[in-house]
Amino acid sequence: MGKIEQNKEKKRRAILEAAQHVFLSEGYILASMDKIADQAQVTKQTVYRYFSSKIDLFQATLMHMGSDSEDNFFDHLKKPDRKDALEGFGVSFIHAHLSSNHLSTFRLLVAESAKAPEITSTFFSVGPNETDTTLAAFFTDRLGLAEPDTAVRLWTSMLLGFRDCVLMGMPRPSDQQIEQHVKAATELLLANTAKQQA
Amino acid sequence: MGKIEQNKEKKRRAILEAAQHVFLSEGYILASMDKIADQAQVTKQTVYRYFSSKIDLFQATLMHMGSDSEDNFFDHLKKPDRKDALEGFGVSFIHAHLSSNHLSTFRLLVAESAKAPEITSTFFSVGPNETDTTLAAFFTDRLGLAEPDTAVRLWTSMLLGFRDCVLMGMPRPSDQQIEQHVKAATELLLANTAKQQA
DNA sequence: CAATAATCATACCGCTAAGTATGATTTATG
DNA sequence: CATAAATCATACTTAGCGGTATGATTATTG
Lengths: 198, 198
Description:
Helix content of chain A: over 70%
Oligomer: homodimer
Largest sheet of chain A: none
Structural class of chain A: mainly alpha
Strand content of chain A: under 5%
Radius of gyration of chain A: 20 Å
Shape of chain A: elongated
Order of helices and strands of chain A: HHHHHHHHHH
Largest interface: A-B, 45 and 42 residues
Number of strands of chain A: 0
Distance between the termini of chain A: 67 Å
């Protein structure tokens, strides 16, 4: 049966989730192993039985967090109308990137990237890279762009503009503002694309 | 004469500049009052004579930093040709926002904004707000946009896209990449504007 | 039931940093 | 010169944190 193995898995997950919570709300440096142990309802010793050090636990937590994100803004790109596809993607993309979970993660990575660049780059190369390649394919197939990279970057930059504001304490934009922003961005992009296609 | 007053001012500035250096390179939490005192060639006691606490010194440092920024990307907006103006502004704007000083400041504010939102918002409302209003005026006068706010946001968003990448450890884009990016962004903007004006 | 592994509770070590205290030394002012 | 303020050098207090040690308690397995 291996009941002990199941419990080990449970404990490990409990610790990781507690760590995620504490790391995201406190930042790496202020998050203490005691707090994490408390939050996981576990002894500090037990934490150290599963993870050999704080930085080890932090890395494992980053890996664990990735499996949570089930947003999928990519689905919108399958819509038949290009404008619908882009607008749907844009709104979904922005909402995902303004979620408190994402903001906290970003904040954490930005803060820690100075001292641990390898974590930041290796981990986050998964997220943005996937987005970029998927969008590049869409821009090539559906918008007829031979060289989509610059356009992709401009497009994602426009969508992420709100994030910086929110990161610095500005109020979160309303759904209506987001929609208007995405519509304008789409218009900008499609207008130029149409010209290039002509 | 008041020679004592002059020295007080000097000491205060020395401490503030040391604090700026240490805060930017270490982050708020890792920056210690001992390091700052050393850097300022002053005793910790003296630091505490001028600033009552670490957070007090941090706030004063943020205020003091503002007076340094003498970038002026705005000058480019005076060029007669709209395209030249926008491209010049864009390149200068990006370079300014990729400077190590700006990146460090941004990193610091992002990291600390969770614990001290009032600092972040009150201080940085100076920078972006001025940019937005200046750009809005340009968009109205030179591009003929009656409602420039959304366009301004899209424009600055496109220009700041690189910053997020660099913040997360990606390599700094080359001057050529920046120029290409700005040219594409300008093209996008002007294409749409021309259409609206017709 | 007996043996083994995991966990618990708690205390401890070494270290660093915020902030205070003290007494000596310098510097500006009358 | 004499006074008073500012600064210096140094040491101290207090507290939190990373990580370890210990001995008791629980649960799993044969």
